[in-house]
Amino acid sequence: MLPDPQASRAVLVGVDAYTRMTPLPATAVGTQRLSRLLCDLWGLPDSHVTVLGAEALGEEVLSAVRDAAQATSDTLVVYFAGHGLRDLDGENLYLCLAGADPEYPQVGTVMYRDLRRVVRTAGAAARYRLTVLDCCYSGLAGAMSAHGPATRTELALALDEDPTQESDPTEDHGDVVLTSAPHDRQSYAPPGAPYPEATGELIKILERGIPGIGPELSVTLAWQRVRKRLLERRSPEPQQFTQNKVADSLCFPNRAATAVMSAEVSEGAKHYSAELLRRSAETDQAQKNSEGVPPAVPADVPEPDWRPAPVRRWRPEKELPYPGDAYFKQQRTHRYLLDEAWTDLRKEFKTVRRRLQVPFHVRSPLSIAAWLHQYTGDPRWEVIAESVKALQNHKEGYDPPFVPDPYAAQVPRSPHYQLTRDIVNAYRERVNQLRADINKLTDLHADLQE
Known about the structure:
Distance between the termini: 39 Å
Order of helices and strands: EHEHEEEEHEHEHEHEHEHHHHH
Radius of gyration: 26 Å
Helix content: 25-40%
Mean pLDDT: 82
Structural class: alpha/beta
Strand order of the largest sheet: 2-1-3-7-8-10
Largest sheet: 6 strands, mixed
């Protein structure tokens, strides 16, 4: 269900400058973009959306939330992006404003529990209350553990309720809290990236929609997609705490051009059944597995008509058996040349990491390509990732078999196949081709960032 724009309000806080902490320029940009999307998607008047930046003090933040909450009878949105701190006991979350002191979390911050009490009390007449926190340790909003579903106590902590009262799944009102990270993990705002990581994924989903879901996109589905994309990059796992069925009922317009609601699930589609999600995932996987069909490149990425050449098989269809120990020196030399080419490819990806501001924890060539595919939305990075898969196990069959037990009988072992100079040249040719494509694609995205 889409909210009534005349009866809804939003307060967005993006703190980009700090006196004692690292600046986060992406938060201000992300906050502005998210505010425009709320106006565009829900039709909120500009006067119903309040955006606060680094100049805001704690009293001003709470006052703005109070005023918006009191004026809301339909949907209230409260969003915060910036640094987050926790106390020594790890029990309380503090939202950092410009004057925050990392040594004293109570200074220059807004305690999350104070914010929640204002939202709940001043917004008592609101039908839906959506809170989004993109900051470190934001999962402390519900103290949710890294694994498993939230307990009733954790949900009550996040929603500021009595933990002895159970949510009523038939009720169509209440709260939902979305956090960018668990209680013990930091969030990421990659240097040079336009938005913080979780906010950026949410913006992409709201801008593009999700194909095959229908005309409306629930908060649950949108945040599940954000969670999926961040987990694929091995980033902190976003959390969701919801009361009643609010996260399924509160929706955004789905901008996906191909979004079609299937007749067989039309009755249950407004609740977005698990079966529909499964079918959508299977369709996505089938598209990934298809061979010979170039991926569709969105028009908003640089030079959409250019595509990298995919690397598939570089080894001969029929491998020659290893000729014997007389060939040992040649085999060793050729293995060295394969390793040298693979090392050059890894160096190329190190350059990519530096130029495109890939997070430090994303290191292997395959994970870098996969991260860039998810982060930029450019399917050409997926082609690069598939090419890396074809090249990474370059010595399989050309090395002597590995002996896991050092005390086993030392029987002479030989490689299975002969590694010829022609095979080495074919491998090096594919690596050089891939390096050239990586370099061009990196240039396109680096120019876009600048």
